[in-house]
Amino acid sequence: xxxxxxxxxxxxxxxxxxxxxxxxxxxxxxxxxxxxxxxxxxxxxxxxxxxxxxxxxxxxxxxxxxxxxxxxxxxxxxxxxxxxxxxxxxxxxxxxxxxxxxxxxxxxxxxxxxxxxxxxxxxxxxxxxxxxxxxxxxxxxxxxxxxxxxxxxxxxxxxxxxxxxxxxxxxxxxxxxxxxxxxxxxxxxxxxxxxxxxxxxxxxxxxxxxxxxxxxxxxxxxxxxxxxxxxxxxxxxxxxxxxxxxxxxxxxxxxxxxxxxx
Length: 262
Prior knowledge:
Helix content is about 10%, strand content about 40%.
C-alpha cells in the first residue's frame, strides 16, 4: 500500500482504517503517517479556502499495523478567518494519537517581514542515498529516499545532534501536498540517535510544525531537511528543523520533544 492509498482511505471517509506493517517504526506506525492521516481527515471538515498554519501532534500510545482504527473529528471553532480542529486516532477504544490544527485564510496586513532563512544543503546527490536494509533500518524506510548531507547514522556515537539532507517518496504521489510534507518531515530519525553509543530506542512525544505560504510543489520534488538539537538532558531532548524546497525557500518549521532511552 503506497502513501496515496493510505490517504485515500481517509478521503473516502471509511469508518475503519488500517495500514500494513511496512509503514511501521518498531511496533507502531511512524509518526508522520499518523499526522498525515489526521491532517487529511481534518481537511474533510475544514473550509477549502483555508490553508494549514500549524499542526500540533501528541503521540499518546502505539498505533498497531493491521488492526482497525478510526479517526474522531471535532470542529472546535470556525471564525471568519481561522478554524481550529481537533482529531484523534482511536484503536481498541484507546487514544493513540491526538492532533490540533489551525487553518486560516489570507488577510490584508501592512506588517510584512520577509523570511531570510537560507537552505544550507548542497544539491541532491542521487548517487548517495540511504539504503533500506531489512532488519536494520525502520520498515517505512522502504518507501522513502534520503540523501544525508550532515550528521551520521543512528548509534554511531557522534559528537553532536545535527542532521540534514534531502528527502522524497520513492513512489511519486499524484500531488505533493501538506500531508506528504508532514510524513516526510517526521521520517527522519531524532537527531540525537546518532549520539547513542549503542542500539537503543527513542520516542517522539510531541511535535509542532508551522507552515509558510508557498507555491505548489512538483510531485517528484525533493525536500530539504535541516535539524539541530536545542537541548538534551534527563532523558528528554528538544529538536528543531527547517524544511525547504529545492529552490532553497523555507516551507515549514518543525519542533519536537523526544524521549531518550540510551
